[in-house]
Amino acid sequence: MEYRTDPLTGRTVVVVGSRQARPNLPPDGCPFCPGGLEAPEPYDVRWFPNRWPPMEEGRCEVVLYTPVHDATFASLGVEGATRVVRLWADRTEALGARPDIAYVLVFENRGPAVGATIAHPHGQIYGFGAVPDAARVELERPDPLGADVPADLLVARRGTWRAWTPAASSYPYELVVAPEDAIADLPSARATATDLATVLVDVLGRLDRLFDAPMPYMLWIHQRPTDGTAWPDTRAHVHIAPAWRAPGTLRFVAAGELGSGVYFNPVVPEAAADALRRA
Fold first, then answer.
1. Residue 200 domain-assigned?
2. Residue among 75, 42, 63 nearest 108 (CA)
3. What's the pTM?
4. For residue 90, which of 66, 123, 156, 257 sits 20 to 30 Å off, Cα-Cα?
5. From the DSSP assignment, how many helices (H) and strands (E) are in the chain?
6. What is the C-alpha separation between 198 and 147, in angstroms, rounded?
C-alpha cells in the first residue's frame, strides 16, 4: 500500500496492488450469513475487519446489518435499523479514539450497479489518517443543513431528523438526511438513533417502491472529524445517491461532468421529491 499525491490536482490516491487479487464473489455460499466465513456465530448486527482492506492497520471494517440474506435496509424495520445506527456510532467512537485516525467514514454501496459484489445487506467503515477533501469541503462551509427545508423538497421527517432532495442535486432522486439540531457525529446521535433509523427506513423504502425494484444506491455519512480539532459547527448528515434515473436506467456520470466539475441532473429535484413522497 502506498499513498501518492497527484501533482496536478493535489488529490490523494492510495495504490493497493494487493486488492487486484481479491475475489468478486465468494466461491462457497454467502460469507455474511450465519455460519459463513465472516459470521461463524449467530448475530443481530456484526462488524469485522475487512479481509481485503484498501488501507492497512485495521482501518477498514465491514458492518453486517442483519443475518437475513435477502433483507433490505427498509425491511429491517425501525428496531433493526436502530441497531445498525448504534453500531455505526460504536465503531465511529472506537476508530476515532485512535491517534492515527482523523476521520471515520461510514458508507454503503447497494447493488451490483454500484459495485456491491455480495447481496447480503452490509456497509463499510474507513478510518482515514487525514480528513478527506470531500468531507472537508462541506465541513468548512457555513452550515446550511439546519435551515428550513422548502415543503416541495421535504420527503420525510421524524423528530429532529429530516430527509429532503437538495435543490441542486447531482443525482436524480438524491437525498440528504440531517438533524435540525447541531448533532455533530454518530456517537452524539445515540439519543436520537431511533429517529434517524426511522427516516432511513422510510426513504430507502421509498426508493425501492419508486420503480417497484431494488434501487441501487451509494450512501455515506459525513460527521465531525476525530483529529483533535473542535470543529464546532459540524452537523452529521447522510448522503444518498441513487444510481437510476428511470426504471433500470443508470444515471452515468460522463466526461463533461468529471472534466468540468459541473453536474447535469435530468430529473428536477422538486419533481423527484414529489415522486418520493408519493412512493
1. yes
2. 63
3. 0.95
4. 156
5. 5, 13
6. 21
